[in-house]
Amino acid sequence: MQFFEAHQRWRGEYRANYDAVPPLLRGRLDQSLGITPAAYDEARAIANRPVRHWRSCSSEVDVLLTFRRRCRAQGTGFDGDARFNRSGP
Fold it and tell me: CA-to-CA distance for 56 and 74, rounded, in angstroms?
């Protein structure tokens, strides 16, 4: 999905200045050439299934507990911002 979306965003530049597009981006855009809007829509529908399922059952849930990551990102000495482990401001 991401490559299709990137191609939609960069298609004018991709077509007009292909050789000037950075190689990594150009490669990703090349990979997205065969993705049709119908295939993209189908992929989004599949990706949204868990969201729809969660919404259908979350009205019965007051609290959701999940496991936290136990290790730090290798070499950083920092294991992330705790704000990403909660669902509120």
Answer: 38
